[in-house]
């Protein structure tokens, strides 16, 4: 039995150079687009389903596998791989990625990993980078020198990062850090609100939900928001339904 060596993950500074390039010219082209545990963020899912012209329920049914994890408060939404021998990504073909302009953040960022850390006083976010060197990836043998900062810009990660930063107060919410376990209904609400925001729109428009003022959304303006603005509002609204919030949505200190 062959044992796969562990991938190497090394911290790297935002402006530190490394050799890397990727594209049809590398011998391992598309080798990484298979057998992935690729977690889709709500923004990834929205970009992909717009690209594919699907409503969110159809997108989730065709392309997502939703799984709870023991160390996560909420289920994760994975991109389903094909059930063929190579477990290929459903979007990979001989010419590369069929959804390239809307590929998920993880595909764009690879081999760079970007993490965000809230400063202890929770006043601002700190960016941390790592470089993931996997055995099959021959891009590191290419002569092009680049930095994590430049790589992220070249891969047009800015809107993805904006949404990741918007998600941070939710995912790193104080009650989650204290070990709060949402009920199955709250977990379902998380999936429904963030991965199917059109239902959030319907519920606000119909008066079933009255989001607090800080979300910037109400039943009168909800029809004017595009899906991305709606998702940002939904990300702000969801934690206001969790324990410890006052009726105006503020955290009860
Ligand atoms: S979405 Fe595109 S880049 Fe990402 S794994 Fe699939 S084919 Fe590869
Ligand atoms: S394995 Fe590395 S170099 Fe090869 S296609 Fe994937 S990211 Fe690019």
List the helices and strands and how they pair.
Elements: E1 8-12, E2 18-19, H1 42-52, H2 56-63, E3 64-67, E4 76-79, E5 92-93, E6 96-97, H3 105-109, E7 112-118, E8 125-133, E9 145-146, H4 148-154, H5 158-171, H6 174-177, H7 184-195, H8 197-205, H9 227-237
Antiparallel strand pairs: 1-8, 2-9, 3-4, 5-6, 7-8
Bound molecules: iron/sulfur cluster (SF4) (2 copies).
One iron/sulfur cluster is lined by residues 33, 36, 89, 91-92, 97, 99, 103-104, 107.
Mean pLDDT: 91
Chemical compounds bound to the protein: iron/sulfur cluster
Query: What separation lies between the terminal Cα atoms?
Result: 55 Å
Q: What's the total count of β strands?
A: 9
Q: What Rg is obtained from the alpha carbons, in whole angstroms?
A: 20 Å
Q: What's the overall geometry? A: globular
Question: Counting H and I runs of at least 4 residues, what is the number of helices?
Answer: 9
Q: Provide the domain count.
A: 2
Strand content: 5-15%
User: Uncertain runs with pLDDT below 50, 5 residues or more?
Assistant: 1-5
Strand order of the largest sheet: 1-8-7
Structural class: alpha+beta
The helical percent reads: 25-40%
Give the helices and strands as they follow along the chain.
Answer: EEHHEEEEHEEEHHHHHH
Could you describe the largest sheet, including whether it forms a barrel?
3 strands, antiparallel
């Amino acid at each position: 039995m062959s044992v796969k060596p562990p991938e190497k993950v090394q911290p790297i500074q935002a402006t530190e150079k490394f050799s890397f390039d990727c594209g049809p010219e590398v011998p391992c082209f598309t080798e990484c687009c298979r057998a992935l545990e690729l977690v889709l963020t709500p923004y990834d899912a929205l970009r992909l389903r717009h690209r594919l012209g699907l409503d969110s329920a159809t997108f989730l049914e065709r392309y997502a596998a939703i799984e709870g994890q023991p160390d996560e408060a909420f289920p994760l939404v994975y991109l389903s791989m094909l059930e063929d021998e190579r477990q290929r990504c459903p979007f990979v073909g001989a010419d590369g990625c069929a959804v390239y302009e809307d590929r998920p953040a993880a595909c764009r960022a690879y081999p760079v990993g970007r993490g965000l850390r809230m400063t202890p006083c929770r006043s601002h976010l700190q960016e941390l980078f790592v470089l993931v060197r996997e055995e099959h990836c021959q891009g590191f043998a290419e002569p092009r020198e680049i930095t994590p900062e430049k790589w992220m810009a070249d891969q047009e990660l800015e809107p993805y990062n904006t949404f990741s930063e918007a998600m941070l107060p939710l995912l790193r919410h104080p009650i989650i850090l204290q070990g709060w376990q949402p009920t199955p209904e709250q977990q379902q609400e998380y999936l429904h609100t963030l991965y199917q925001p059109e239902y959030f729109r319907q519920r606000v428009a119909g008066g079933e939900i009255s989001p607090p003022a800080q979300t910037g959304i109400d039943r009168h303006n909800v029809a004017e928001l595009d899906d991305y603005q709606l998702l940002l509002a939904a990300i702000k609204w969801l934690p206001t339904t969790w324990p410890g919030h006052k009726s105006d949505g503020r955290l009860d200190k």
